[in-house]
Amino acid sequence: MSKLNAEERKARDNQRFSQRVDERRVKGEDVVGYALANEKAFKFLTKTEKHSFKERQATLAEEAKLKKQQQFELKTQQELEKAEAEFTDTEH
After folding, report:
1. How far apart, in whole angstroms, are the C-alpha atoms of residue 30 and residue 46?
2. SS3 (DSSP) at 79
3. Using CA atoms, how far apart are residues 43 and 28, in angstroms rounded to an integer?
4. Which of 6, 30, 70, 72 has the fewest Cβ atoms nearer than 10 Å?
5. 46-91, pLDDT tens digit by residue?
């Protein structure tokens, strides 16, 4: 098999992603979820699927932001409790 140049590889990959998205769509699977997992599939979504993709992506980003904030607050609280415990131990 001869080596493919960049254009040929891109065309081959695009064809594969298009086929995979179409297969999932026919099976009734979550094509938006597939595109979220593999962003190269995004350009093969329909307009309504792209809209759904962007909404779900924003939701996931917000959830990740909240989780990170909660972890930060928990860490801060634990550090505060540790400092208070050390302070009360040195007073006795």
Report:
1. 13
2. helix
3. 19
4. 6
5. 999 999 999 999 999 999 999 999 999 999 999 999 888 888 877 6
Structure tokens given for 41: 């599939």
The Cα 50–Cα 62 span in angstroms is 18
- Could you tell me which residues come within 8 angstroms of residue 54 by beta carbon, excluding any fewer than 6 positions away? none
Name the amino acid, one letter, at 85: A
Task: Report the alpha-carbon angle 62-70-35, nearest 5.
Answer: 30
**DSSP conformational letter for 45:** S
What dihedral angle (degrees, nearest 10) is formed by the CA atoms of 46, 49, 54, 60? -140
Q: Can you tell me the distance from the alpha carbon of 16 to that of 4, in angstroms, rounded to the nearest whole number?
A: 15
DSSP state of 38: -
